[in-house]
User: Fold this.
Amino acid sequence: MSQSLRTCLLIGPLILFLVVCYLLPFLGIVGWSVTLPDPGLGQYETALTDPLVHSVAWRTLRICALVTVFSVIAAYAISLVWVRGSPMQRVLVELCILIPFWISVLTRAFGWLSLLSNRGIINTFLQNIGLIDAPLTLVRNDFGVVVGMTHFLIPFAVFPIASAMRSMDERALMAARGMGAGRTRIFWQVFVPMTGNGIIGAALIVFVFALGFFVTPAILGGGRSVMIAELIYLRIFQSPNWGLAAAISVLMMLAVGMFLSALMRHLAPGTER
Assistant:
């Protein structure tokens, strides 16, 4: 069997899977956006001019940016302990990273709801010790959504950052130490810059993943912190307008694709920065 035929047999199922499961459904969505309810680009015009869509899109971007920042910061600290901690610390961190993967997103969202609701564990504790008189509003707003999404996405940010830390050239740290640099200076001026690719990769994964979140915002937002995925769901199942939902979906896909393309071009080897 020739090498080219073997390569085709290995790659062929993957290409077929992508075409059947992603490309064809996406083309169907594009078709709905220009045919429902009437042929034309009217739904795109509505999506680009509707104040509600603008409001939800900005809220989605704001929440995704906050979640990305908090997730990457937390993941960096966790990765640091995982890579450079003692054996016992590494085992504990591995358990903290892996166990969340065994728990569904629905279970985690309801867990946060029981913690943050008005009669939840946190408000009840704070009231019992006399720190607050009335319960704090910790859910059914952007705060609850950010907390739930950050908790879910931290493990996904850990892996690229930890990989960057493990592949670091230790001689650079030794050279900085030998030249008299303190631990704080070595960390900020040598260690962090050398893990920059891991940080960017983690931020990219978290941000793109967060854009499509549905369950956590729907439960912890309680309908008061609607994100773009929930808006698409509402346009399909509650106020049927499949054409507008399809147009919003296509615009989101294009925005994410353009963002990723620009970022990849900026980070490509040999690009002047």
In short: The first helix runs from residue 3 to 35.
